[in-house]
Amino acid sequence: MVMTHWMRTMHDAILIGIGTALNDDPQLNTRHLPALPSGEQRRLPRPVVLDSKLRFKPDCKLLKNFREGTGRRPWIITSRGSFDPLKHRELANAGARVFITDSVDGSLSVDSILFTLRQQGIRSVMVEGGAQIINSFLRAKVAHSLVITVAPTLVGKEGVSYDAEATKKFEYLSTEKEGRDTVVVFTSAK
Ligand SMILES: NC(=O)C1=CN([C@@H]2O[C@H](COP(=O)(O)OP(=O)(O)OC[C@H]3O[C@@H](n4cnc5c(N)ncnc54)[C@H](O)[C@@H]3O)[C@@H](O)[C@H]2O)C=CC1
Ligand SMILES: Nc1nc(O)c(N)c(N[C@@H]2O[C@H](COP(=O)(O)O)[C@@H](O)[C@H]2O)n1
């Protein structure tokens, strides 16, 4: 988890799906890292949640941290097709900034998401999960590297499965042990 927090400091935005936001209520900050001297701040990434139907909770930790001044304003990306003005107002009042993009077959278009983020000055994105979001980004072939942490936990069908075709462009780079976990890195060959 500490390595994940280091990786967060290296990106402009950390992106998750609404499944992860609702199940885990994550904070997407760098709180596990050692404090810097004399109150200096680490680079805090922008939290971004893909939420086609605006199911994000106004009382979640991301919004609480923002209201209390300890986190950046979360951005929610939602679908033009199922946009609900009431839910939008509720989330905006709670502190979220909502962006509307196109959908393809019921999922937000990865190209539209990246275009929206780039327009806002975001140059690097860490896609943290969950399984559906990771699969969408792999299928869209937009990732430059793939970092897989293998923890000694048996999760069965809950693990991330993926299309072999979607990962063809990756080449193996390295394997490192981090405590009980093993971190395997692949980079884009093209
Ligand atoms: N161990 C780890 O490192 C991590 C584990 N997780 C786990 O993953 C689980 C959640 O995973 P999932 O259920 O797969 O949900 P998810 O977090 O991947 O979100 C999927 C939802 O996002 C929305 N969505 C909008 N645009 C989409 C697009 N282009 N592609 C796919 N979905 C899109 C849809 O409503 C979809 O149901 C959580 O229980 C969490 O614990 C999540 C992050 C990291
Ligand atoms: N244990 C663990 N190790 C990793 O390397 C991970 N990427 C995760 N994943 C997710 O981290 C989220 C929690 O984030 P916060 O610490 O609250 O910011 C949560 O979504 C985990 O599933 N976990």
Automatic annotation (TrEMBL):
Domain Bacterial bifunctional deaminase-reductase C-terminal: 4-183
Catalytic activity annotation: 2,5-diamino-6-(1-D-ribitylamino)pyrimidin-4(3H)-one 5'-phosphate + NADP(+) = 2,5-diamino-6-(1-D-ribosylamino)pyrimidin-4(3H)-one 5'-phosphate + NADPH + H(+); 2,5-diamino-6-(1-D-ribitylamino)pyrimidin-4(3H)-one 5'-phosphate + NAD(+) = 2,5-diamino-6-(1-D-ribosylamino)pyrimidin-4(3H)-one 5'-phosphate + NADH + H(+)
GO MF term (any one): 5-amino-6-(5-phosphoribosylamino)uracil reductase activity
Enzyme Commission designation: 1.1.1.302
InterPro entries from the UniProt entry: DHFR-like_dom_sf, RibDG_C, Riboflavin_Biosynth_HTPR
Keywords (A to Z) from UniProt: NADP, Oxidoreductase, Riboflavin biosynthesis
Keyword flag Oxidoreductase: yes
Pathway: Cofactor biosynthesis; riboflavin biosynthesis
Keyword Membrane set for record: no
Matches recorded under Pfam families: RibD_C
Biological process terms in GO annotation: riboflavin biosynthetic process
Gene3D superfamilies for this protein: Dihydrofolate Reductase, subunit A
Position of the signal peptide: none
UniProt similarity note: Belongs to the HTP reductase family.
Biological function: Catalyzes an early step in riboflavin biosynthesis, the NADPH-dependent reduction of the ribose side chain of 2,5-diamino-6-ribosylamino-4(3H)-pyrimidinone 5'-phosphate, yielding 2,5-diamino-6-ribitylamino-4(3H)-pyrimidinone 5'-phosphate.
The protein's name: 2,5-diamino-6-ribosylamino-4(3H)-pyrimidinone 5'-phosphate reductase
Organism listed in the record: Pterulicium gracile
